[in-house]
Each structure stands twice: as structure tokens, then as C-alpha cells.
Design goal:
287 residues, binds fe (iii) ion, Protocatechuate 3,4-Dioxygenase, subunit A, binds 3-methylcatechol, globular, 7 helices, alpha/beta
């Protein structure tokens, strides 16, 4: 069909506004419909192809994978790039970089004062000790900030979604102390991979892509009077560090990982086996 014919048809779909209509929703849906119809026309998309795409999205919805397709297509990273631009325009520079939340946060994790142990002791992975401070953009500590942290286990699985893990395993909310400090003990996460042969995996394969993320730890950092920061740190030696299917890795979010293994230090720490240590500060912008 010619563009003019498509446009005429689309005008028929765009019913006159009633009182309950939302003009913004109408404008956006009309725009998306136009682009979709043009694509169907330009690629001569066949009914079988069209319905198989609908089927893939329906399957993604049923299996809770729409939240994986969004970062997988880069849409969530695109939203981050737009939020960065809005901050630059507002004159906000130099805070900790934001990056994608992903679909695996669960609200309601236990709240701890200043320090926490995230793992339930059943994962034999490498112990990880992480600590740091929440600061404002002048470098001053933010006392009593909330550090919400969540990450995968040593197999790359998240509690709640992985029913074999205990409730809120590797998920905590930590209130920083007077000096904005937090610290926690956990186990080193492994990178996540999308469920094999699921709708996201099938889509990514057709795009010639993989569904792996480098090992990472998620954070929400918040405090009254500050912009909430959604971010992650990445583990530096992961083979997928700069090859994340969700495009979440950013300069400034890859801290040094210190490996501690000397008998002397192990004795001091009381951990009993080699472990990893990370120091990382978060810088928030004021509202
Ligand atoms: C994850 O663990 C994640 O952080 C994102 C963004 C997407 C899928 C799985
Ligand atoms: Fe994740």
C-alpha cells in the first residue's frame, strides 16, 4: 500500500476523542501504529511472521520475560542515556553513574543498620566483603542513607525468582551510619544468563546475539532531599564485562577487586578461606 492509503486507514482507527480519552496516549499510540504499519508494509511482513511475533510477546508475558526483552533490546539503557542528558541540562555533573535496574528487584528485603550479611551461608562461593560511603556532590557524607543491594548467587540466579534459595537471600536494605558508611558480607555473584530457549533467548538468537550479563551487584541509593540513584557495580575480571546483553556496564562502575589470600590476613579476618574485597563510594545529587 502507498503511504497515503495507510495514513487514511490510520485516521479511521483514530476515533474522535471522547471525554475519557487521554490526548497524550492517543498521540503516542497513533505514532507507534503508524511506524508499525509502515514497517509491515516496507518489509512485506507476512501474516505468519506477524502472528509468530505476537506469539513471542505473549509467551514473554506469560513467562515474565517482557522485563528481559526491554533491557535486551537496549531500551532500558536508552532511558538511562536520556536521564543522563536531563541531568546534564539541569547542571548536575559528577555523581555516580546510573545504570539499569533490570527486572529482578524485590521490595521488602530485611533492613540492617550500617552492616549486613547478605548470603544465608548455603552458597559455597567466594566470600565478598564490600564497603564504602554515601556522599553528596561536595564529598560530604550522607548519614542514614538507604543502600538497597541485590545480586545473583554463584550460579547467576536471583532469590525469589529462583525458588531453591531462601527468602531475600542476597537482598538487603542497609541504613548508613552517621558518616554515611555501609558494609556487607556476601558471596561473589556469577553473571546472569536469560533462560535458555525462552522467548528472550529465541529473539536474541535471531538477532545474532547472546543473553549473558557480566557479574554485577545492584544498588538503589536514596535519602530524603537527594535524587534516588539506581546503579550497579561490575566485577572486573568477568569475560562479559564489556559484552553485556543489557548494555549496563559503564565507566566508573568497575571497582578494583582486592583478593585476600595470605595466611596472615586470613587469620586476621577469621573467614577461613580466600575472599574478595571491594570498596566503593556512591555520590548522590541533591534534589
Ligand atoms: C539481570 O540480572 C539484570 O540485572 C538485567 C538488567 C537484566 C536481566 C537480568
Ligand atoms: Fe542483575
Amino acid at each position: 500500500m502507498e503511504r497515503a492509503e495507510i495514513d487514511a486507514l490510520l485516521q479511521r482507527f483514530d476515533q474522535p476523542a471522547t471525554e475519557q480519552a487521554n490526548p497524550r496516549t492517543r498521540a503516542i499510540v497513533n505514532h507507534l501504529m503508524r511506524e508499525l504499519c509502515y514497517a509491515i508494509e516496507d518489509f512485506d511482513i507476512q501474516p505468519s511472521e506477524f502472528w509468530s511475533a505476537v506469539g513471542l510477546l505473549a509467551d514473554a508475558g506469560r513467562s515474565g520475560e517482557l522485563g528481559l526483552i526491554v533491557p535486551g533490546l537496549g531500551l532500558e539503557h536508552f532511558l538511562d542515556m536520556r536521564a543522563d542528558e536531563a541531568e546534564r541540562k539541569a547542571g548536575l555533573l559528577g555523581g555516580t553513574p546510573r545504570t539499569i535496574e533490570g527486572p529482578l528487584y524485590v521490595a521488602g528485603a530485611p533492613l540492617c543498620e550500617c552492616e549486613a550479611r547478605l548470603d544465608d551461608g548455603k552458597d559455597d562461593g567466594e566470600p565478598l566483603f564490600m564497603r564504602g560511603q554515601v556522599l553528596d556532590s561536595a564529598g560530604q557524607p550522607v548519614p542514614h542513607a538507604l543502600v538497597e543491594v541485590w545480586h545473583a548467587n554463584s550460579l547467576g540466579n536471583y532469590s525469589y525468582f529462583d525458588q531453591t534459595q531462601s527468602a531475600f537471600n542476597l537482598r538487603r536494605s542497609i541504613r548508613t551510619d552517621e558518616q554515611g558508611r555501609y558494609r556487607f558480607r556476601s558471596i561473589m555473584p556469577c553473571g546472569y544468563s536469560v533462560p535458555p530457549d525462552g522467548p528472550t533467548d529465541r529473539l536474541l538468537r535471531q538477532l545474532g546475539r547472546h543473553g549473558h550479563r557480566p557479574a554485577h551487584v545492584h544498588f538503589f541509593i536514596s535519602s530524603p532531599g537527594f535524587r534516588k540513584l539506581t546503579t550497579q557495580i561490575n566485577i572486573q575480571d568477568d569475560p562479559h564485562l564489556w559484552d553485556d546483553f543489557a548494555f549496563g556496564t559503564r565507566e566508573g562502575l568497575v571497582p578494583d577487586v582486592q583478593r585476600v589470600s595470605s595466611p596472615e590476613e586470613l587469620r586476621q579476618s577469621g573467614v577461613g578461606k580466600p575472599f574478595a574485597r571491594i570498596e566503593f563510594n556512591f555520590t548522590l545529587h541533591r534534589e
